[in-house]
Amino acid sequence: MEAQAQLKPPVQPGRNRLTLIALIAVALAPVVLSYLAYYVWKPSGGRSYGQLLEVRPLPDFPLASLDGKPARLDEFRRKWLLVMVDDAACGKDCMDALFALRQYRLSQGKEMHRIERLWLVTGEGQPSAAALRQADGAAIRRALAPVPLPGELQRGIYLIDPLGNQVVRYPRDAETGRVIKELVRFLKNNESLG
């Protein structure tokens, strides 16, 4: 028995203390790192490419179809809505915006059924045949009152969510790829909306 007692290594109080400190450090590390990540190292991601708007319902305002029948924004509920506002003359900037709206929608692939495009025509007159071809299936309604969207209307493209809330405003000369990527995120992160 004396031989077995001699085989035991001597107890080292410093080693036990180091083990305890290591265990405490491992337990506290996630808490400390999460604090630092939240308060010190703020992530640079999460910024929107478009101008985020105050999320609030777009007020209903009088609309009509091009042939004069009354229309309402409610007909577009339950879909994401890309909206542009321009007069019936539809110059080059307007034609480019119509093309961009089509590209934004088509680029969503199997999710494109969740997006509707809307051209709100202001002023008198009818859009030209070329403008109607460029619209290529977009809904066209005449705004019979000022359009209650923020910013310079003829310089932006607006995203309205399926609940009718204004969400984002993109400049008409926005980088197409960045807008498309952001739309993908909106659709993916809000699958339950529409």
Automatic annotation (TrEMBL):
It comes from the Bacteria. The chain crosses the membrane at residues 20-41. The keyword Membrane applies. Signal peptide: none annotated. Keywords: Membrane, Transmembrane, Transmembrane helix. The keyword Transmembrane helix applies. This is Thioredoxin domain-containing protein. InterPro entries: Thioredoxin-like_sf, Thioredoxin_domain. Residues 52-192 form the Thioredoxin domain.
